Amino acid sequence: MTDPRLSELARLLPELKLSTDPGDLEHHGRDWTRRWTPAPLAITYPASIEEVQGIVRWANGVGVGVVPSGGRTGLSGGAVAAHGEIVVSLDRMNRVLDFDPIDRILTVQPGIALEAVHNVARERGLLYPVDFAARGSCQIGGNIATNAGGIRVIRYGNTRQWIAGLKVVTGTGELLDLNRGLVKNASGYDLRHLVIGSEGTLGIVVEASLNLTSPPPPSQVMLLAVPAMDSLMRVFAEARHRLTLSAFEFFTDRALHHVLAHGAQRPFEETHPFYVVTEFDAADEKAEAAALSFFELCLNEGWVVDGAISSSEAQAAALWRLREGITESLAPHKPYKNDVSVRISAVPAFMAEMQELLSAEYPHFDVVWFGHIGDGNLHINVLKPADLDNAVFVEQCEHVTSLLVDTLHRHGGSISAEHGIGLVKKPWLSSVRSEAEIALMRGIKAVWDPNGIMNPGKLL
Amino acid sequence: MTDPRLSELARLLPELKLSTDPGDLEHHGRDWTRRWTPAPLAITYPASIEEVQGIVRWANGVGVGVVPSGGRTGLSGGAVAAHGEIVVSLDRMNRVLDFDPIDRILTVQPGIALEAVHNVARERGLLYPVDFAARGSCQIGGNIATNAGGIRVIRYGNTRQWIAGLKVVTGTGELLDLNRGLVKNASGYDLRHLVIGSEGTLGIVVEASLNLTSPPPPSQVMLLAVPAMDSLMRVFAEARHRLTLSAFEFFTDRALHHVLAHGAQRPFEETHPFYVVTEFDAADEKAEAAALSFFELCLNEGWVVDGAISSSEAQAAALWRLREGITESLAPHKPYKNDVSVRISAVPAFMAEMQELLSAEYPHFDVVWFGHIGDGNLHINVLKPADLDNAVFVEQCEHVTSLLVDTLHRHGGSISAEHGIGLVKKPWLSSVRSEAEIALMRGIKAVWDPNGIMNPGKLL
């Protein structure tokens, strides 16, 4: 540790755990994107809010960028440190601090894994409803920084909706204690909501109070084989009308292909163009009958040609695996990811146009679609042919993204539904946000982080 | 209209409806507070977004403050114009612009009354769930500016939760089109949430897209007589556990006294210290039986000594009137209003301390309590004795507020739960928000409104 800046940091915070080990620099310098070469100055592992404040104050003094680092499961390069930044890993700040059964508020440190939050809530007879496949590794602080969505948004909304309070260290090292778990607090700008989704560019979340809720009644999972794209939204409309939905997800035959190759079990003998996985309340016979009559209607209308319904938790998990295993099954193919959203009503027209565009522009690539169709959120993964150079591949994909952006713009959509802007989507921020909005964001960033040290180069 | 600034405005916007009639100045220059003498420069009634932009640009040029004006049912002086400001009344921008049944989004102009939104939603078989007694006069733009709460927060949250998109004219006259109805949109700072609750100090809401939801099943309303303060939270805990609540409100015998004097019908023969009005789902016999067994439990435990349950809509309305009629019944007594909140778990200790404080400090005043106890939100109205000068009365009340603020601070509460800061609570903003938070708010305000013309003097 010969860098004089690091010696100064060690002098200021003698207890701070700090590493310049090349393995740590590599590991903590990147997220699930693999496009940038990690090159942080060092990795810090603060154990307290005071240490986080100390790091940020030091960084202001020496002019080093600060990259907050959670589970690094991000897909937009938001947690990449490629330019000599100091990484603030929240791995050691991963404890449950408090639970109040009357408030139904769980207070945690930011480095706790989402799945650990689920488990603690369950032990208390309650539910923290935000959920997605990376639950075992992603951290709640990162969930907040990206306003994480996932598979239950249709019922429970995004992370934003579950944050009762936040402690945040700003870009100047000030500690804010925002909202403090109040249900009602009309006392000026809700800075909590400004921090949620700010991708570490305003400050670092150092503590979070999460609202928990009652768990839903027992549920069932249904898998549906859908022969045509324009049936997807009809099935969704009927499902929403007739059932109490917790999830309504779709994927294509290409997605199924990869997830089966990765070890999942084939659900139907035949192959179909589209599949839906939906989960809904099935508390009693009446609810189960409603599910059956929904299925029969879809079958009679020709919107669905085959189906399976879970009758045990194991079966439910097997059906979910077909959807949740997709991201992992694609990872070896270095996918280029698009994560787009439109209003739900715009999904059919947008999907049709996008399919046309993609088949014209990607005739030789394997394009895999899936996503949260009931939220208007589609994931389009383009797989890299094994023999194609990565830089060339990304360049070709970005060309298509630029075309996609036009289509999105016409449909009032967003280039980032839930992954965030980070580094990956930055070139297209102006397709979603107007010049005036971006100017306001820059102005706000300058107020919170006057020296521009917080996650520099990301988002803005 | 001899003021040269107004002549200039009329020249710039020849179609703009504008009034300097003393009656209009008086009517549109104030809200439900009566402490300030209205003295606006003029009242404008724009009919379009372009006219709102034109007014704001003109105001920047001539250095006149802009006061956005909705239904003026506010209780914190947020819509008061007492210093030569231009008032922007949204009364003429009160139309429904669009409804999409797939998105379940209703797009409206800001001047539409909350009750009109309820009605339009109902006609579509859907629900806009934010609700409170001023529904007939308050406007959706004002609801957004104050993040209005009300009687259904326990189930549906505040206004914030229902805003899918906002068009806003900033302090420089720029038009922002925020979020555009997307369910998922992780593309930088969510400026929509910064505007919600900003009390007109950042800009003017000129269009809103509201999420609608499915109406709840049929409900029942129960009135409970509660003999002691410490039973209130026990009754609430049981109700939340056993029933699906839409509302859980309380009021005191003093509140009942005034509402009866105002024409409501006496519910029980005897008088009791506290009353609860609760509304809950009663879709079937099972749910009705749960309500009955909840009531019996409360009775057996001695938490409740009498009760009434609605068996018709008319009866439900009569029970609700006991709670909803309170504000109106107190109005002739020029109440000094406190609108405070604490975490739900802190309610019992806070209420006990507050009651002690108030009986020590207000021995001769009529103090009326009511509120949304399930949200931790209490309204404390101190009635002005008829023979006491108003200024002296307010001064005495503010002295007590300062004591109350200490108690609140110890319990982590807020001086404004849902009324906003406006002018009335401004002296105590620093009891809820830290110096660092207030500095950030000021910085953000300067970014949105560099000339400081938007609702000057309010909030900050």
UniProtKB/TrEMBL annotation, chains A, B:
Signal peptide: none annotated. GO terms for molecular function: FAD binding; oxidoreductase activity. It comes from the Bacteria. GO terms for biological process: respiratory electron transport chain. Keywords: FAD, Flavoprotein, Oxidoreductase. It holds the Pfam family FAD_binding_4. Its cofactor is FAD. Belongs to the FAD-binding oxidoreductase/transferase type 4 family. This is FAD-binding oxidoreductase. It comes from Luteibacter rhizovicinus DSM 16549.
